[in-house]
């Protein structure tokens, strides 16, 4: 097995081949990133402590941190994983890698010297010589740390430049672009960005407050509109009730004025007379109906039957059966023409004549035509006399006269 030892302080590394497996047993069953003392290799390595960084097996597959096995596994790797470099953006690939446990099947084991005790011998080609760095630090803070600079110092003067010397040409140097370099321009840029952020924040707050104010104002306006509408509705209701009350009061005043002027009693009497006339007309119609019913009930009076009653009588008359044609069974005659007779009988049974159902009370004494005409004449005469008296006197009639007139009216009504 080969041991590749490196010393980061000097920037040197050295490859040693070890054939004795007893010397290598100290590394077996150790995981990656573990620190191991290598005093068992030889006396020159006494006092040195190394860390297992990585390794490759005999087929060339690298060790991967986190895979806790001795053998190989096939993993799907993408950007950011060790042991794989993607060729395209977002590319993934399944690769075979070895576990992180050290075994005898490894061909090369990479070790990094971590500690070195003072007073120990230097290893030739590893700790006694230093290799200068090809490139200097690119970050400003690391340059400050390398040269022990303060924040006020200008880092650009201490940037490590790379010489580019060519034959028959003027010598020139190349410097990297310093990252995270703090300059007045950068500070101004930061200040402007901060000012812009502050302005946007302020605008957002103002906009939110304005929206809140607008919402409150809108709610206030809506509330005012509702209140105004409600006031209008209440006003209309008040006006309508006021109109109703005024109309009632006006009608009362008008009635009072009519009473004072003497027209009101005549209006009352006219209404009373109209009622009496209506009652008389109703009595007259009742008289006609009663007369018709009396005539229908009286057997002495010969009333000619209508067409419908005549038909019904004809249907009710039973025809005598002829000899040999019909026979009598249980009081019911059956013949060829009996079906028609039965049909007419059934039809007439459903709709009997109207006069048979009507019944008039015999005890009611109804007025005759002469008495009716006399009553009407008396009413009209009394009304005209009253009107003449009122027009002649033009004063309110006495209560006694109104009482007498009402008594006469009641007498007429009873007649």
TrEMBL record:
Name of one Pfam family that matches: Ribosomal_S6e
GO molecular function: structural constituent of ribosome
GO biological process: ribosome biogenesis; translation
Keyword set includes Amino-acid biosynthesis: no
Disordered: annotated segments: 226-259, 290-375, 388-415
Biased composition (Low complexity): 400-415
Biased composition (Polar residues): 298-307
Record's keyword terms, sorted: Ribonucleoprotein, Ribosomal protein
Signal sequence residues: none
Biased composition (Basic and acidic residues): 226-237, 249-259
Xref: SMART domains: Ribosomal_S6e
GO CC, alphabetical: ribonucleoprotein complex; ribosome
Gene3D superfamilies noted in UniProt: 1.20.5.2650
Family: Belongs to the eukaryotic ribosomal protein eS6 family.
Its biological purpose: Component of the 40S small ribosomal subunit. Plays an important role in controlling cell growth and proliferation through the selective translation of particular classes of mRNA. Part of the small subunit (SSU) processome, first precursor of the small eukaryotic ribosomal subunit.
Subunit annotation: Component of the small ribosomal subunit. Part of the small subunit (SSU) processome, composed of more than 70 proteins and the RNA chaperone small nucleolar RNA (snoRNA) U3.
Protein name, UniProt field: Small ribosomal subunit protein eS6
Organism taxonomic ancestry: Eukaryota, Metazoa, Chordata, Craniata, Vertebrata
